[in-house]
């Protein structure tokens, strides 16, 4: 397709005219980041001027940043939760937004053990779609020929619930996949999936995964890229193939569909697609039947150019395993987003995972940045800086104001400035604030882990005259799915009667029951986290841990037991002192309905 020569892009030569317009938009928006941010804030404040929340702070119709910052406080979820709860309960007055709240997006972050509810409005779907529309034009600059094949993406809808007032509450991607933006998206030769909508939208996770994998195998030569949202999701798909390849090969051989696929629309769709192919079935059986699965991705899908998965933050722990299964294929992290807001994109998506930086798109929301100081005791709102005023090399906590009615909201992400694209800053995602353990979309902080240990001790150990002297943890991602490992040093009052293996297994389950709803959903509904494991270590192990830390320069006066470990020598020390291992014997309780 001819490209309008009046639309050059400093990012590189566009693949087609549509790409040229997208790249021009990125350039135009990032060149005038300060002006775009002023406009965005003015739009947010003028349209929402009569909301209960903004009237409370007596802005008097002002839409400038100086008035906004001097009168509206910086908040966390807990500060705005009463207003959110009123909306959830059915109050339709303009509390946070002048536009009606269309649904709630459930965050992977939690408050009091339940997913946070993020209010959204109908037009936010357009804003999110506008960011999606920029991803392939940028990718096409790096990887030519993506219009000559398809993407094998493992995409899933999660369970949803209704609030007491009747509004849907569901994850942001479930909202997107169920929207007309996704279901009736126009054909784009650069963005064709092997998975039909019927497979992606099937609520049964087994049927959805099975048919998506089957479609990927049937079109194995067409596949140019493999993806999932998170690295953990792609590894779960590989594990699924390990467990189910024989049945998949049987379906391909005979052209008949596994009887476990019962969803009527999905079944009809697959039966139209599936034809007997004994040669392909033989190939799948030959590759999957081998003991060595190194490079299995490129063996089955030989034309794969890259993996499209998030491998930043907590997901970086999966990079070595993905390297093993893919034979070292590049891993592209394309965008940075959350339930609260979509933020920006990676303009160099084929860079090394350790070098990923996201360019914040100034049109998505109004952004402020709080210089991050882990030792700071209180919040000084005068320290917040604007998007264009951040300094390269510094770390900041992200603060956003959105069209949907969050004002000066602390997202909880810690970002490091790596540079600028034009006047828009680029950030490396450092971590979620206060998160200790994460396997998939779960985020467990120190307070939650402490509560889980306390509850297990009270429910089980106290009856046995035993207690936890010390503990630490790590996220074990060598297993698929990954799982939490908790190291316990016990004080047993009667050494003749130590806690039984069954009792310690019950402690594992008691801990899981105490963890937040996102963790329990990952365990029960998504099968993306394995059973929690407790490893009991010898008496005196944590003293040895302290001695080791002091030998490496830690102050004996300031030493605190780390509640999460990932440093290899410490892991080796702990594992060498393990006397027994115990796993959760069953699934914890979880329901899509929120606790009232």
Radius of gyration: 25 Å
* Helix-strand makeup class: alpha+beta
Strand order, largest beta sheet = 9-10-11-16-15-14-12-13
Helical residue percent? 25-40%
Instruction: Return the average pLDDT rounded to an integer.
Output: 91
- In DSSP terms (H or I, runs of 4 or more residues), the helix count works out at 20
Largest sheet: 8 strands, antiparallel
* Shape, principal axes of CA atoms: globular
- Spatial gap, N to C terminus: 56 Å
Strand content: 15-25%
Number of strands: 22
Low-confidence stretches: 1-7
Task: Provide a descriptive summary of the structure in words.
The chain has 20 helices and 22 strands. Strand 9 (335-337) and strand 10 (342-345) form a beta hairpin. Helix 10 crosses helix 11 (231-254), helix 11 packs across helix 13 and helix 11 (231-254) packs parallel to helix 15 (319-326). 42% of the residues are buried. Residues 1-7 have low confidence and may be disordered. By secondary structure, the protein is α+β, with helices and mostly antiparallel strands. It is globular. Helices cover 36% and strands 21% of the residues.
């Amino acid at each position: 397709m001819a490209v309008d020569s009046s639309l050059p892009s400093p990012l590189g030569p566009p693949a087609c005219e549509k790409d040229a317009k997208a790249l021009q938009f990125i350039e135009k928006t990032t060149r005038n980041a300060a002006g775009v941010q002023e406009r965005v804030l003015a739009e947010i404040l003028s349209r929402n001027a009569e909301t209960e929340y903004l009237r409370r702070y007596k802005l008097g119709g002002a839409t400038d940043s100086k008035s906004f910052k001097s009168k509206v406080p910086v908040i966390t979820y807990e500060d705005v939760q009463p207003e959110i709860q009123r909306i959830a309960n059915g109050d339709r007055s303009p509390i946070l937004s002048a536009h009606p709240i269309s649904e709630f997006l459930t965050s992977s972050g939690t408050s009091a053990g339940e997913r946070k509810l993020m209010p959204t409005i109908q037009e936010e779907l357009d804003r999110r779609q506008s960011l999606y529309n920029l991803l392939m034009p940028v990718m096409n600059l790096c990887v030519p020929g993506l219009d000559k094949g398809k993407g094998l993406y493992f995409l899933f809808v999660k369970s949803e619930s209704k609030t007491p007032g009747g509004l849907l509450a569901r994850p942001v991607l479930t909202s997107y996949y169920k929207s007309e933006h996704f279901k009736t998206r126009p054909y784009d030769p650069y963005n064709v999936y092997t998975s039909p909508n019927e497979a992606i939208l099937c609520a049964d996770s087994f049927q959805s995964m099975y048919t998506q994998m089957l479609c990927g195998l049937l079109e194995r030569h067409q596949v140019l890229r493999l993806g999932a949202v998170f690295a953990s999701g792609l590894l779960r798909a590989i594990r699924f193939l390990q467990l189910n390849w024989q049945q998949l090969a049987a379906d391909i051989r005979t052209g008949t569909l596994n009887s476990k696929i019962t969803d009527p629309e999905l079944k009809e769709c697959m039966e139209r697609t599936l034809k007997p192919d004994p040669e392909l079935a033989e190939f799948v059986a030959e590759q999957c039947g081998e003991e060595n699965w190194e490079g299995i991705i490129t063996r089955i899908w030989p034309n794969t150019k890259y993996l499209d998965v998030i491998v930043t933050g907590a997901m970086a722990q999966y990079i070595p395993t993905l390297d093993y299964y893919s034979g070292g294929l590049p891993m592209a992290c394309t965008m940075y987003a959350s339930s609260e807001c979509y933020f920006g994109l990676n303009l160099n998506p084929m860079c090394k995972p350790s070098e990923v930086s996201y360019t914040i798109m100034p049109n998505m929301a109004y952004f402020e940045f709080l210089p991050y100081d882990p030792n700071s005791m209180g919040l000084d709102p005068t320290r917040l800086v604007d998007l264009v005023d951040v300094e390269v090399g510094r770390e900041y906590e992200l603060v956003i104001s959105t069209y949907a009615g969050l004002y000066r909201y602390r997202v909880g992400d810690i970002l490091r400035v790596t540079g600028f694209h034009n006047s828009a800053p680029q950030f490396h995602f450092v971590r979620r604030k206060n998160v200790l353990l994460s396997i998939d979309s779960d985020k467990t902080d120190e307070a939650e882990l402490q509560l889980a240990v306390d509850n297990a001790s009270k429910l089980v150990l106290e009856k046995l005259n035993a207690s936890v002297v010390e503990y630490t943890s790590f996220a074990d991602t060598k297993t698929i799915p990954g799982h939490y490992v908790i190291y316990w040093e016990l004080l047993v009052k009667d050494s003749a009667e130590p806690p039984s293996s069954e009792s310690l297994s019950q402690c594992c389950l008691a801990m899981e029951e105490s963890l937040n709803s996102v963790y329990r959903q990952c365990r029960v509904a998504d099968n993306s986290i394995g059973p929690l494991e407790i490893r009991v270590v010898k008496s005196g192990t944590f003293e040895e841990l302290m001695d080791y830390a002091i030998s490496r320069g830690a102050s004996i006066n300031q030493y605190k037991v780390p509640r999460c470990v990932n440093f290899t020598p410490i892991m080796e020390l702990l594992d060498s002192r393990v006397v027994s291992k115990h796993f959760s014997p069953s699934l914890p309780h979880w329901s899509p309905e929120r606790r009232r």
